Amino acid sequence: MSAKKIARTVIAGGAALALLAGCSGGGDTDGKITLDVWTFGGMGLDEAFATYQEENPDIILKVTNAGGSDEQAQALTTALAGGKGPDVAAIEVGYMSQFKAQPQNFVDLRTLGADDIEGTYLDWRWSQGVAADGSVVGIPTDVGGLAMAYRTDLFEAAGLPTDRDEVSALWPTWDDFIDVGAQYREATGKGMIDNVNSAIFNPAVRQGDEMYYGSSDDDLVYDSNPDVKEAFEYALDAIDADITSRTPSWSEAWNAGMNNGDFAVLAAPSWMMTYISQQAPDTAGKWDIAAVPENAGNWGGSQLTIPAKSDHPEEAFAFIEWLMSPERQLEIFQAHGNFPSTPELYETPDIQNFTSEFFSDAPVGPIYANSVESIQPIFEGPQQRIIDTAILNSLSQVENGEEPAADAWSTAMKNVKTALGG
Amino acid sequence: MVLSAPPRSTSPRSTSVRRLTKSTAPKPRRRIRSASRMDAFAPYMYIAPFFALFAVFGLFPTVFTFYVALFDWNPIGGQTFIGFENFVTLYGDERFWNAMRNTFSIWILSTVPQLLLALFLAQLLNNARLKFANLFRMTMLVPYITSVVATTIVFASLFGRDYGLINSFLNLFGIESIDFAANTFASHIMVSTMVLWRWFGYNTLIYLAALQAIPKDVYEAAAIDGAGGFKQFIFVTIPSLRPVIIFTVIVSTIGGLQIFTEPLLLSSPGLTGGAGRQFQTLSLFMYEQGFGDFKFGYGSAIGVTLFALIVVFSVINYLLSRRITSDE
């Protein structure tokens, strides 16, 4: 008996038990089709789901929100390992490389007409959903884009310019950015950025055309790619110049820090605007948005996939096509700040004239459009996230004063090797 | 021990049962025989649901883990048989020994103070002069029944570097803020405190039950011999509680080696237990490898090792406890 067969037997047994316990799968009733859709928090799709439901009475959307993107990835792993899966599953881009390395678990969307809509989306964004064998595993949702959100009141107190164009002009390069941080520290005694991972390494490492992989799954270049080393050095320089407030992203202190001004600058993808305005409502009007050094960047986004076990792949694809059409993405952006991944919208007045009241009426539309248009497609192999975690952890250790900066690069490379070998 | 000598006691009991049924209902022999066969069968039926569920959800996964550990096993991809390679890699993996050190450190830091505290509280709760004794006893269980997630969130903010209550308190005395999550030892204290908080009430109640079972005349005799409260505690209470103390040590050893939820929640987002893996326990390492990095085989090898470790500790505990109890 092969391992797979045993696994299947086990799952069959489990399924039998589940049936005994009175659970039943989403059966189709009255000729209606049920689409099982798995999402996670912050995707901003709820209104769109409701609209679709209204317009398509023959389809029942059964939406499950797994929590965060980590929980969603783990839930999907468990389901796929058990030979099951929903009809539509959202996968955060950080996990995409791990899932698309096993494309047999998903419907190749080229068989459903994905080629026809490919041109609608940013090419580098589209490529994040394409597996090494060329099959299209997922359709892009929104794109993060990247800008630097900064506090005008704190900048003023530090004697720095507050106008967004002047601020952008302060830091055309990462070295300039670090210099501004040093000035801020001198004037206020505080760290300018939240942490080096989010504000420096993550954006900087994604500004080249290669990251940890060359052009295939076996072509690991994380230790030889000068872009990676350079981004790492920027982060170390920033720690050395003491421009960080050492506040980990997504921590309690981070949320509190946005309110209390513990840091003045934050790498902000488009969807982060909603997060800041929710976490720090009292700071409305004190934020503005400037360009990110080197002018290109992205953080976040997801792909919508159809697991191979779906009973209704055609209906699922039609749904995804509708949901991620430019019109729908524009609505989602206007309501939730998730930036569209469809460039045809960027020159329209809807985007060009879009401003955010919370961010001092900044023209966020053109700023984000600008940040995503110059990004190069980057090949991401199956171990992408594992390598990323090991490198980011090494930087955090230096930032927290737990490890000396001099050894950081060699420690990071050693940790990556261990993680890949295990 | 009771369990070691069952055969002797069975035969007299069964004859007495037969005698009893004969005298009360002598005539319909066939029905008696079938009824007694049912009687013999019934207990197995009663316990069958547990064993059936255990076989499916307990025994099978355990055995299957041993099997998976021999493979390079991607949960959503292929499986390749690689023999004991996972184990060889594991025992040379720095992260494994790190997780092992963390587990033992957190286990000792949480168990020792926890049991001492429980013993102390049980002694207080057993005081005859205590008013509202039941209220206090019930309260002990509140941390135990509170959701771990809620507990962890509250404790994480208490231990926060910038806004934590504990650091504010330390600052009052001129002590600089401690970054509990980043520093290895400080993070172990943080995790241990959460574990202690969750389990001390449970152990307190077990000790309390044992305390109430100690006959009063032993204390009276001790008092007559001139032993004060403290001496009574050392020479009467502790020796009488010995079997119960051993039981709680065994249970908290098994629990301590499997600490998972607290470090997982503190680790979020991410599964490494801090940037330096400073509070990643063996269970969390297993979860990271299996579900985070898609290495089921490697994760299973960690699981098997953890299993072996717990068996070894349980056997040591058992042998120790047998020696201690037979010393009496």
UniProtKB/TrEMBL annotation, chain A:
For this protein, the record's InterPro entries field holds:
Bact_solute-bd_prot1, SBP
Q: Which domain of life is it from?
A: Bacteria
Keyword set for this entry? Signal
- Signal sequence, start to end: 1-26
Q: Does the keyword Transcription regulation apply?
A: no
Q: What PANTHER family has UniProt attached to this entry?
A: ARABINOSE-BINDING PROTEIN-RELATED (PTHR43649), SUGAR BINDING SECRETED PROTEIN (PTHR43649:SF32)
Q: Would you tell me the protein name for this molecule?
A: Cellobiose transport system substrate-binding protein
From TrEMBL, chain B:
Per the record, its GO cellular-component terms are: plasma membrane
Annotated region (Disordered), positions in chain: 1-27
Q: What is its main location?
A: membrane
Q: Does the keyword Transmembrane apply?
A: yes
Give the residue spans that cross the bilayer.
41-70, 104-126, 138-160, 180-200, 241-260, 296-320
Query: What ranges does the record list as Low complexity composition bias?
Result: 1-18
Concerning Gene3D superfamilies, the annotation shows: MetI-like
Q: Name one Pfam family in it.
A: BPD_transp_1
Which keywords accompany this UniProt record?
A: Cell membrane, Membrane, Transmembrane, Transmembrane helix, Transport
Where does the protein end up?
Cell membrane
Signal sequence annotation: none
Look up the coiled coil feature and give its residue ranges: none
Membrane topology term reads: Multi-pass membrane protein
Keyword Membrane attached: yes
Give start and end of each ABC transmembrane type-1 domain. Answer: 100-317
- UniProt record, GO biological process: transmembrane transport
| Similarity annotation | Belongs to the binding-protein-dependent transport system permease family.
Q: Which PANTHER family match?
A: ABC TRANSPORTER PERMEASE PROTEIN (PTHR30193), INNER MEMBRANE ABC TRANSPORTER PERMEASE PROTEIN YCJO (PTHR30193:SF37)
Q: What is the name attached to this protein's record?
A: Cellobiose transport system permease protein
